[in-house]
Design brief:
By secondary structure, the protein is mostly helical. Helices cover about 65% and strands about 0% of the residues. The protein has 4 helices and no strands.
Length: about 120
């Protein structure tokens, strides 16, 4: 995909995700470090729910049954990141592209860790 198309599409979806989140009480207040910590903890919570989905065999989602629980929880993580990044004026799509390029040139299993 063209990088600019990705950035534009990501930002458009982030605007939608932000609107939906804020309409349902999930505002992000710039400069409130405790609030940011809470938002990061909620992202972590979604990843924990993804892990639990794997632990129980990744059944179909009860909320969006055409997807698995793992897909649903990964979507929750990304959507939360999108709206928080949007509200904090973070350049998340650009950072994703830059980090992907950086990772492309890293050594195989860099860092010598087992996982």
């Amino acid at each position: 995909m063209n990088e600019q198309k990705f950035i534009t599409a990501f930002k458009e979806k982030a605007i939608d995700a932000t609107r939906i989140a804020e309409e349902h009480g999930w505002e992000v207040n710039k400069g409130d470090i405790n609030e940011l910590g809470l938002k990061i903890a909620l992202m972590h919570g979604e990843l924990s729910e993804a892990l639990e989905a794997v632990r129980v065999g990744d059944p179909p989602s009860k909320k969006i049954p055409e997807f698995s629980c793992l897909e649903e929880e990964f979507a929750d993580v990304v959507l939360r990141m999108m709206f928080v990044a949007y509200r904090l004026d973070l350049r998340l799509p650009e950072a994703i592209i830059a980090k992907d390029k950086y990772n492309e040139n890293r050594p195989y299993k860099h860092g010598g860790k087992l996982f």
